[in-house]
Each structure stands twice: as C-alpha cells, then as structure tokens.
Design a protein that fits this description.
The complex is a heterodimer of chains A (264) and B (222). Chain A is 45% helix and 14% strand. By secondary structure, chain A is α/β, with parallel strands linked by helices. In chain A, strands 3-2-1-4-5-6-7 form a seven-stranded parallel β-sheet, sandwiched between helices. Chain B contains eight helices and six strands. The chains are: A alpha/beta (264), B alpha/beta (222). The interface between A and B is large, with 50 and 53 residues.
Chain lengths: 264, 222
C-alpha cells in the first residue's frame, strides 16, 4: 500500500519508519494485520505464543521484502508483554503502533450457563486483562511518537451472542476501554481505536468445518456477500487507523464485517 | 403471589434500588471472589428458607476499586483485576447460577451499568470496560435465554448513582456529559419503577435485550 497522495505521506508506504507490535499474529486476523502493516512500511513484531505459528508468519513477511521479527509472547503474562515491548523498542528504536488481537478459545457454543467453568477466566485474561497490560506497557513509548493503540474486538461485542456469551462480554469490555482510554490519552496525542472484524480465519474455518451451515448463514446476513479476508479486508483498516489519515479519529470502533452489523 | 427479587451489590445504586423495588427483596452484598456458580443456590431468605425460583435479579455489583478514579497506567495488575476482571467474572457466574431460578419463574435479569461505559471517561477505564462488558452480557443473556422465557436488559445510569459526589463530578467532566435535558437526574424510585416494569411480563413481555439509558436526558447517542 502506498500513500496515494495523502498530505504528509512518507515517500514509501504510509507507515514507513514506524514500528508495530501485533499480538496473536501467528495466524488469522493478527497475521493479516501484521502483513498489511508491514506492506505499508512498518517494522512489525509478530507477538505470538507459539513459535510454530509466529516464525512462519514473520518469515512470510520478510520473504515479501518487508521487516518482521517473531517474539514469543503469552499475553496473559505481564512480563512477556513488557519484554516484547522492550525488545521492539530496542530493535526498531521506538514503538508507534500497538495492536492487541490475541484471543482465547471460546469453547463450545451455548448459553452462559453451559460454558465450561474453566474457560471463563482465560477469556477474560486474554481479552480484557491483556488489553490493560498491552496498553500500560506501551503508553510511555506511544506518547513519544505519538502513536496509536488498536484493540481487536468483535461485532459480538456490540450486539451480544447467544452462543458465545462470554466471548461477546470480554470483547465488549475492550470497546469500553477504547472509549475511556481515548479520553485519557487524547491530551498526549495518543489515539485509541478498535476494529470489529468478521474474517475467514483458521478459527472460523474450524467452526465452519464443525457446522457447515455457519458460513452460509454468515454470508447470507452480509450485504457484501462474503466473509472478509484477514490481510486484504481487515489489515488495511488497521493501516488506516495507524496512519496520519486517521489522526483525528479516536475512541471509535470500526466494524469491518461486510455490512453484517448496521446498528451503530 | 409476591414477586421474589434478588439484588446483588453493596452501596449504591444497589442499596437505593433495593429499597424501592416492589416484591420480596433479598439483598446480597458479596465480594466478587465470593460469587461462584453456586452462589444463588446458597442464598437464604431472612427466615432461613433457601432461594427457590426468582422473578427478578438485579445485578449491580461494583467494588470500591471500580468506583475509584485512577490513571490506567498507574494501576497494578491487582488493581485492574479488583476493579474490572473480578466483578466481570462474578457477574458471569451470577448469571450462570441465576439461570435455573429465573427459568422456573420466567423471570427477568436486569444489569445496572454506569454511563461511563457507553460514553467513556478518563481515569475510569476499568469501570468503563466492566460496564460495557456487562451491557453486552445482558444482550447475550437475552439472546440465549429467550427460549427459556427469561428476559434480560441493561439499564444505564448516570455516574452519580455509582460514585461519590466528588468522584461523580470528576467523571462528568471527564466524560464531557451534557446537563440532563430534564434539568435533574432520575430518583432511585423512578429507576426502580422502570426495573419493576421491565420485570412485569404483562406490560413488557415482548421486550428483551433492551439497553435503556435512564439519566434524565444526559446522553442521547445510540
């Protein structure tokens, strides 16, 4: 992606010279966002729990001629997040873009009373607590640029979910956080936004394999008639939010779902 | 038949609402860590009889840490857990435990949330995250509990119903809220009247998943 004539756009990509961290970037939406940020010129840290995913994701970006490095990071561990931020700053000279995308497995679909008891706190830890930890660890560096924080939420975090109620709840906490952090960090010039995507990710493919009607139902409620592509449809939204073109946008949730949710 | 009501939460707005709601009102003031999946089953009325079926559950459990303004980057992980994660998990577990009691009566769950979640407020990030999570939890409960004839709603209230006068004034500034269009905020009795109506299947039986803002016309977005 190039500047396309935006005022103040660097000669290369719109994010040339910037440094980004994307959590949960070993696959799916996180990998798509990391790929798009790198293609726009950012040096990207693939922060993922497993090297088996993270290393290939970083290698794929490097093979395309862009900058990326894998750092092992369990987002439920404050020390991991802080170490990832420190290493990113050391390697790339600062941090401009922090994207928290990692998500825990939501378990089998069903009402809240049917959710496995031991799958509740991990979902809170990975979405809610980790958003706090990512924000706290990155603020000092984002202030210096000033940079931007992007949290990946979900349309379910707006309209609720009959089958994934805990997932919807924790995704909603991220929207509340975005609005208040935007107010708290605005005076420092740090912008905070959320993206609520629907994309055909490995997790979605697994859900579709288990329930073949799912994709048909999702597509039927999507005006654009297809599920999103993580790199081509969701990644550019993150690039835009991180770019100077979005410099007057903060505290917002951008729903990137092909028009499926129109309630805002 | 008298209506059996459970109000969960200490301080306001729980206490003020409990005093105004109609029916046989049981108030529980647990710490978030005390709310497990069997919490509702373990409750007993003043005469010692166990809770067996509920017509209305009002969730308003906000620990002091949630109500205390703080810069997010100055919070420890323990602060954050106490202000947001622990009461969030408690609300989820309360809902799990309340399900069978509400299903027995075709009852209603009402989650009370502060306006800071919808509008955002500097220095109340944890409370905002908790509030938005709970608001959407109510929507999810409405979606999944509809077939059980249980209805669920969120009622959004002005920050002054959750915070001390000093903190509420700060929150109003931090949220850039307008003055209430009605020139005053609703009383606890007025809020309780709306919750009573939400629990009355004869008048609101076709309503579920609503997110009502009861703030005298302070915030009118969405």
């Amino acid at each position: 992606m190039t500047g396309g004539g935006l005022a103040g756009t660097p000669a290369g990509g719109v994010l040339e010279g910037q440094a980004a961290i994307v959590t949960g970037a070993g696959q799916g939406v996180g990998a798509g966002i990391a790929t798009a940020l790198a293609a726009a010129g950012a040096a990207v840290v693939i922060a993922a729990r497993r090297a088996a995913n993270g290393e290939p994701a970083a290698e794929s970006i490097r093979a395309a001629g862009h900058q990326a490095v894998f750092i092992r990071c369990d987002v439920t561990e404050a020390a991991d997040i802080e170490a990832t931020v420190d290493e990113a700053v050391e390697r790339f000279g600062g941090l401009d873009i922090m994207v928290h995308n990692a998500v825990a497995h939501a378990g089998r679909p069903g009402g809240v009373q049917l959710t496995r008891s031991d799958m509740i706190r991990p979902q809170i830890a990975t979405a809610t607590t980790a958003s706090f930890l990512c924000a706290r660890a990155s603020l000092a560096h984002l202030r210096r640029r000033p940079g931007t924080l992007i949290l990946l939420t979900s349309p379910a975090g707006v309209e609720g979910s009959a089958n994934l109620p805990v997932y919807a709840t924790v995704k909603a906490t991220q929207r509340g956080m975005v609005k208040s952090l935007a107010r708290e960090w605005g005076p420092d010039g740090v912008r905070v936004n959320a993206i609520a995507p629907v994309a055909l990710t490995p997790a979605m493919e697994a859900a579709v394999a288990a329930n073949p009607d799912l994709e048909t139902r999702l597509v039927a409620r999507t005006p654009l008639g297809r599920l999103g592509d993580a790199a081509a449809d969701i990644g550019p939204v993150a690039v835009f939010l991180a770019s100077s073109g979005a410099r007057y946008i903060t505290g917002q949730t951008i729903v990137a779902d092909g028009g499926g949710f129109l309630g805002l | 038949m008298s209506r059996d009501v459970l109000v969960v939460g200490g301080g306001d707005p729980a206490a003020a609402l409990a005093a105004e709601l109609s029916g046989d009102v049981l108030v529980a003031t647990p710490e978030p860590a005390d709310v497990d999946d069997g919490f509702v089953d373990g409750l007993a009325r003043a005469d010692g009889t166990p809770v067996d079926g509920l017509d209305l559950v009002v969730q308003a459990l906000y620990p002091e840490q949630s109500r205390t303004p703080a810069r997010m980057n100055e919070m420890t992980a323990g602060d954050w857990a106490a202000a947001c994660d622990d009461p969030l998990e408690a609300a989820i577990r309360l809902a799990r435990g309340a399900h069978r009691h509400l299903a027995a009566r075709r009852g209603t769950m009402v989650v009370c949330v502060p306006l800071v979640g919808a509008a955002g407020a500097a220095n109340l990030v944890a409370m905002s995250a908790l509030a938005e999570g709970l608001r959407v939890l109510a929507r999810s409960l409405a979606r999944s509990w509809g077939p059980d004839r249980i209805r669920a709603h969120a009622v959004t209230l002005h920050p002054s119903m959750f915070l001390s006068p000093e903190h509420a004034a700060t929150a109003v500034d931090a949220t850039a809220l307008h003055d209430p269009a009605l020139g005053r905020l609703p009383s606890a009795a007025e809020v309780a009247g709306v919750i009573d109506a939400l629990a009355d299947g004869r008048t609101t039986g076709g309503l579920t998943g609503a997110s009502l803002v009861m703030d005298g016309g302070t915030w009118m977005a969405g």
